[in-house]
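Checked the freezer inventory, then went back to the computational side. Two predictions to log before the end of the day. The first one is the construct we discussed on Monday; recording sequence and tokens without edits.
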Amino acid sequence: MKFWAALLSALLILSISSIVIYHSYEDTVDSTTPLYLYLNKRTNDTASYNWGSIKLPMRALVQVSCNGEGNLVIYDGITGKVVDNRSIFGHAEYQFIIPHEGEYNAVNSKMDTTLVCSFRVIRNYPTKEVQNALYISGSALALLLALIVWRWGR
């Protein structure tokens, strides 16, 4: 019985501590300096962009605020995939979720236009791997607790 009590205590401490740690950084707000984005020149097969870089330590809900005219494209710096693509005319504010931690590149892909954009992290989210670990440890804790209660009832 000491083994089960120790295992239950360990899983309980693991679950509670991971939830506390997650909530300590969940509402941490961060922002970037304004990024000045424009397309320098375009030839037949190449384009010269002025781009900005955004580094995020985790998956996050980001608020984008832009002034100017252009087409804001945000690329994943690791995979090169497009994360967000918006046409901006005048002033625009919108939100989207950055899918994972890493570096992201912001580019204005419209010729002869300028965008000034800033990015503000509103809420941080754990990555899917962290969420899966929390779900698995919570499920194991619930099953172990049910087993102990069932054994005590006999």
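The second is the one RB wanted added to the comparison set:
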Amino acid sequence: MKKVVMILALAVCCGVPAAKAVDGFLVLRASTPLIVSGAAGLRLGQPAGHHRPTVQAEAGIGGGKLSFGWDNTGEGRTGHALKIAFLQTWIEPVDLDEDQSFVGLEVEFSVRKLLLNLGGYRRVSSGDDDWVASAGLGFIF
């Protein structure tokens, strides 16, 4: 599993030209399966307004996510992102067993600071749930 995460991180970082800027952001979100979560991320590369390589970590009641992708959400009137994500469940995830690992794709859309995310994940650990859908609504700061 660590190899998968490392490969994803390297793939994103290899696409980054010399980092001209690094911008941090925070997200507060209600979602399935994480229930309520907070995220912190970094956008690398070009000035604001353009899609930039992004690294994001999120932790909530039902689990956590580590994602890598291209993002410009929350930077203008509208924005969107495409991310590859690793999802780990714990404590009380919505409609899932705890202690399962998933890898998948997630898309995000923003209108000003309002953020909507949708994702699909495939289980990569032992457990009962082969595929998982994710959806959430939150705010980006």
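For RB: The chain has a mean pLDDT of 87. The first helix runs from residue 2 to 14. Let me know if you want it refolded.
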